[in-house]
Amino acid sequence: MSGGGESAAPRAPWLLLTLAFTEGAAVMVAELVGAKMLAPLYGNSLYVWGATIGVTLVSLTLGYYLGGLLSYRRRRAEIVFWFMLVAAFLVALMPTLAHRLMTVLDGMGAVSAILLVTSLYLLPPLLLLGATTPLIISILSRDVADAGGVAGRVYAVSTVGGILGTFAAGFYLIPGFGLTRTAIAGGVVLAILPFILLLRLRHWPALLYPPALALLLFLPGAAEKPHPGVRVLYQSEGLLGQLKVVDISYTTPDGRSHRNDRILFVNRAGQTWVNLDTGEAEWDYVHYLKSIGSVLPPGARVLLLGLGGGMTARNMQAIGHRVDSVELDPRVPDIARRYFGLSPDSAVIVDDGRHYLRSTRQRYDLIIFDVYQAEIPPAHMLTVETFRELQQRLNPGGLVVISYTGFLTGSTGYGARSIYRTLLEAGYTVHLIPTGTREEARNNIYIATLGAIDFSRPRAPLVVEGRVRPLPELFVDPARLDLEQAMVLRDDQPILEKLNLEAAAIWRAGYYQAFTRPFLDMGIPLFE
């Protein structure tokens, strides 16, 4: 560095408080972007958010300590400017670094990889940003008695910046521009003021920032390779995860036929899979739901919690039912209508399912839970309190149907058995239908009723492996379920995600091998 001493550095309170404001905003933008960059490979699990928040706190702690040590040095303002300029570049670098790290570490265990990746791309910029806070406080404090008031103002201004940065990134920048552009924009905005101040102090090495940023912008990324069998129709980043609609054309493994499929991915895990040639859903559980729904007479009122591509809503309408769908992600209804044939006049409420159940006065004959976000089950939707509240929304003779992962035995089935036990605790009679024999490739369908219902004559018979199967024939014998090794899930103990971790890891690993890795090899990036 070159330039004058502390006396030459700007000490205007408004200038330093502006820096504190941008520091707070940049920290939150980096944290949100950092967490969402992990989602396409590792999901939105508790581990992802725990690692991101933990690394953020460690980074800021180390930064505060470093800033405290440097607060006794001369030229403190210049240190602040340099730290912020370097941090700005590192924030802009995050997407490039994250993409390469996740590609290199794809064989590592999920928890270890999450901690390592977040530490490598998130810790350096946040450490530097954290160090600026005590430095700014020390510059603005005239004496020890003044330090408390100055610290309060600096932290308050920084926190306001963090609040606005969170809202801007979460509700506008990430959904509207994607993760990469948001990170680069954050790096540019964060750099403007320290860059100007360093040039005023004749710190000419700061002139390296614009070409370094330009190099980053034009750095060759994963070039998308032409592939006649894969076409990305839609991709969107958002607080609720990455959505991607992909058309895939391929020859079946036996070589006898050619398929054209369309898949909706949520964080790179399949949510809806449709055969474009037939218009039918590829996953069996959708047909099971249709057959179960058809035990009710036409005109039944159905509440579908979790819209996805809308295949279940379409099936319920096809057997004559009236359907209200509740979907948390506001992007999904348009995707269902645009790419999966959901009728424009289908009723869709954008809301949290639990909130809707508590706020509506409408009663239903059938309530279907299809509420996964990729591999993550929403714990607050599958508790004994929720199931008891449902009873106020069911008409006499109504039923509740839940689609869940197919694991049922051993430690991987702990979560599934806990849902069964929780339904019993809430007062329901419960029937369970697995949609196949291989646990990792099937769903478990729970049917919960408050009275006797005849399942022997559905209007839409269920065809399994070429023959009609009566639904009662598929019910699992409750004596086979190890309910002693199961929990009653409650609102004040939201641990379903933890119980489901092993099953979720197996499920996501299958999607990684089938889609994520091949997509990366084709140059389709993990995120925008």
Explain briefly what this protein structure is.
The chain contains 15 helices and 13 strands. It has helices at residues 13-42, 46-70, 76-104, 110-140, 144-200, 209-217, 284-293, 311-318, 332-339, 353-359, 384-390, 414-425, 471-474, 496-499, 501-521, and strands at 230-236, 243-251, 258-266, 269-275, 301-305, 322-327, 347-350, 364-369, 394-405, 429-434, 443-449, 463-464, 467-468.
How would you characterize the overall build of this protein?
By secondary structure, the protein is of the alpha/beta class. It has 2 domains: 6-217, Growth Hormone, Chain: A (Up-down Bundle), CATH 1.20.1250; 283-504, Vaccinia Virus protein VP39 (Rossmann fold, 3-Layer(aba) Sandwich), CATH 3.40.50.150. Helices cover 50% and strands 16% of the residues. It is built from 15 helices and 13 strands. The protein has helices at 13-42, 46-70, 76-104, 110-140, 144-200, 209-217, 284-293, 311-318, 332-339, 353-359, 384-390, 414-425, 471-474, 496-499, 501-521; strands at residues 230-236, 243-251, 258-266, 269-275, 301-305, 322-327, 347-350, 364-369, 394-405, 429-434, 443-449, 463-464, 467-468. The protein has a 7-stranded mixed beta sheet, sandwiched between helices. Strand 8 (364-369), helix 11 (384-390) and strand 9 (394-405) form a beta-alpha-beta unit. Helix 1 (13-42) packs antiparallel against helix 4 and helix 7 packs parallel to helix 8. The radius of gyration is 27 Å and the shape is elongated. It starts with 12 loop residues before the first helix and ends in a 7-residue tail after the last helix. The relative contact order is 0.11.
